[in-house]
Design goal:
OB fold (Dihydrolipoamide Acetyltransferase, E2P)
Length: about 160
């Protein structure tokens, strides 16, 4: 099987993004992430909060939905959803758009493609290895066209 340069680039970027302190993940195709997710959206993240439990701190952030590719029926008409993840990237947490250390301002107005799950209590959750969060601009145009076809995809 041969991969196009664009696919190889995305795989390389994901390996960098996903190899964080204590969290190493095997790369899956965007289709696999989509199929195992309960939701998949293109959105702009904002409004981060963190609980104070130091051992397993949890971040919560808002996603302003630009396009919904997959969404549970109880959220079908929502334009904004709240998602949680581990605060620590060492626990495979995802904090899309949150300012890095040394940055003073949030990286706002940058769309991401993100997938996640609905937990038993109805909360939305995402984390590396099981799900994906990528800057939309990092995704090559052929992959973006593939993502746009996801709602019609049979998994």
């Amino acid at each position: 099987m041969e991969f196009s340069p664009a696919v190889l680039f995305v795989m390389a970027m994901l390996s960098v993004v996903m190899e964080t302190e204590g969290c190493m993940c095997e790369f899956l195709s965007l289709r696999e992430y989509f199929c195992q997710a309960d939701f998949a959206v293109k959105a702009i993240p904002s409004n981060w909060t963190t609980d104070n439990d130091l051992e397993a701190a949890k971040s919560t952030f808002t996603l302003n939905i630009l396009h919904s590719y997959k969404m549970p029926s109880f959220l079908a008409n929502e334009t904004e959803i709240t998602v949680s993840s581990w605060e620590s990237d060492g626990l495979c947490g995802i904090n899309p758009g949150r300012p890095s250390y040394g940055q003073q301002h949030q990286r706002t107005h940058r769309p991401i493609f993100i997938t996640g799950e609905v937990r038993e209590d109805g909360t939305l959750w995402t984390q590396l290895c099981s799900h994906i969060a990528l800057s939309w601009r990092w995704i090559p145009k052929p992959q973006r066209r593939t993502i746009k076809k996801f709602p019609n995809l049979t998994c």
